[in-house]
Specification:
The structure holds two protein chains of two kinds. Chain A is α/β, with parallel strands linked by helices. Helices cover about 20% and strands about 40% of the residues of chain A. Chain A is built from nine helices and 20 strands. In chain A, the strands form two sheets. A ten-stranded mixed sheet of chain A has the order 2-1-5-8-10-12-14-16-18-20, with helices on one face. In chain A, strands 3, 4, 6, 7, 9, 11, 13, 15, 17 and 19 form a ten-stranded mixed sheet that branches. Chain B has one domain: 3-Layer(aba) Sandwich (Rossmann fold), CATH 3.40.50.300. Chain B contains nine helices and twelve strands. In chain B, helix 2 crosses helix 3, helix 4 packs across helix 6 and helix 6 packs parallel to helix 7.
Amino acid sequence: MNTIAYFKERFDQLQPHDDRGSLDKFREHAFQAFSTMGIPGSKHEEWKYTRIAGLFNKEFQLPADPLTGSITAADLDKLRLPGHEQANEMVFVNGFYSFALSRIRSKGVRVIALEEAAKNEFQDFVSKWLGDSGQYLKDGINALNTAFVYGAVFIHIARGQHIDHPLYIYHITDARSVNILSQPRSLMHVNEGAHVQVVESYATLGSNESFTNQVMEIVVESEARLEYYKIQNDGSNTNQVSTTHIRQIGKSFSHAVTISLNGGLVRNNMNVILDAKNCEAHLYGLYFQSGHSHIDNHTIVDNIKPNCLSNELYKGILNDQATGVFNGKIFVRQPAQKTNAYQSNKNILLSDTCSVNTKPQLEIFADDVKCTHGCTVGRLNEEGLFYLQSRGISEKTARNLLLSAYASDILEQVKPEALRGQVEKLISHRLEKDLS
Amino acid sequence: MLTIQNLHAGVEGKKILNGINLDIKAGEIHAIMGPNGSGKSTLASVLAGRSDYEVLEGSVEFLGRDLLEMSPEQRAAEGLFLAFQYPVEIPGLNTINFIKTAVNEVRKYRGETPLDAVTFLKRMKEKMALVNIEQTLVSRALNEGFSGGEKKRNEIFQMAMLEPRLAILDETDSGLDIDAIRIVSNGVNKLRNKDNAVLVVTHYQRLLDYIVPDFVHVLYNGRIVKSGTKELALELEERGYDFIKNENTVEAA
């Protein structure tokens, strides 16, 4: 597959040439950027340990509309998260938002086709913030998503609304007949004083290979509160680049938890831009990978304005031949005095053949700031293991208890109870399987 | 109950125990004393089955079975308990869940059904009262942020819950003030009966004021060089370990 030529052909097929679409110029611009940069290779500083260029040697179909997926309600039922009876459910199929499968129940939540939003009352907002992540992620993969912004949505969380039930966003890729590239895109506006919980999950159907290149951009206004959860537990035939870009433009609170339990190759970009005084941001991550899977968490916390607090804790467990990457950037711009920024990455390696590359990266231009960072890579605590065994607990159970204990402070950060229960269950199944 | 014969052991290629012989019967309390580096903690570790210790020679029989062949969890299930000198802090592991898991794993080993929640809680309350430990403490993560005294009390609480036949107390008095020693010792004394035994490993005599031994053994250079009754502990307290060292140097010469 000649990547750029393939996407050029696809782009020309899809892109209307009469310039009527409200996002045409935007896509055009992004495609040019993609053509220049291409799929990032290992020479790209941010992609040194995560190789995706080779994946495109295979043929992936980039669908033109969601109908090619043909997901039924029965398919969806199997993928639903607990608590879905009350939740707002948003469904993307092969990267296209499906209004038919989605159900918005809560007052204060509006989901509109992005193409529509870009020409109605939200026009200014869309043109200002759509593509904000591209400022930080200067690579062809981000541009590729933008170049094919079709079936994307704008999510509006109304001012002052405390949304009573979470937004569950399912990204379903139907790879039952061919390899599929899906590129979901969404832009969300959390207005003044609004509170909302967002949960994104991913599933591939079928045994062909899937590549999901997803971007979600979220703008958070003052006195608003965003809880964001990303649950990744897809098959080993799946590849994923998942970008969540949060910009806090008023004194606000964000809390993001990324749980990655499976997937062939997973690259997460978690960006939090603290673009107002007195913002608070919490970023948590837990990854547990085995087999030949690869997990890469790239995070950016950009302190632009003074008096912000950010706290970041990512913990990993790697087994078998799994590989991991953690790259945590913290920028403190010159005006961002009195910044408090904390970062920690901890890793437990269960086998001799797994590995992790972890790198904190702090760029501080203000002088009155408090920043700490640290990373550890180690084995399971042998002394703890012996302690538990000496109380009659079998080695397997002891390992299980120790790993559960290790993961517990991240799991506690999953606030919706039904979701936390589900994640705990997934982890205990994995521990049972991996430690046997 | 426990018969140690000619036990030689070491760690990381360094030989520490040089032929220990010891016989402990049900109902007895034995104390092992000795200067720093004499091998006291090594003996406790070898008996509990710590994997980095290597047994080079000799045998240990516990309740008629070969102890050295067993995994640490088997030893525990067979009725051996080690109260750690430095109990391990495990953030994220709730103390009650941990003890419940331990009790039920031991029951499983013995072919017994797991305790139901009500019975477990009832037993726990009883034992908590016995060893003077508060609910707030056991509701926390295992030993995390516990004071020295709280950690040792938690050890004795675990001992109470597991009801071992032989309890080895490894320097249980280290880092404790007199009040804490008294509380911990009271717990141990209340758990005593004619069917179980206690092996107290200590550097100082003071713990033995509270847990009164039937026999005192002095360990030096990896061997028991002197055995006696509790008066021996008092003599050591008075004269220090130097007289043992001197006696042994003379013997060697």
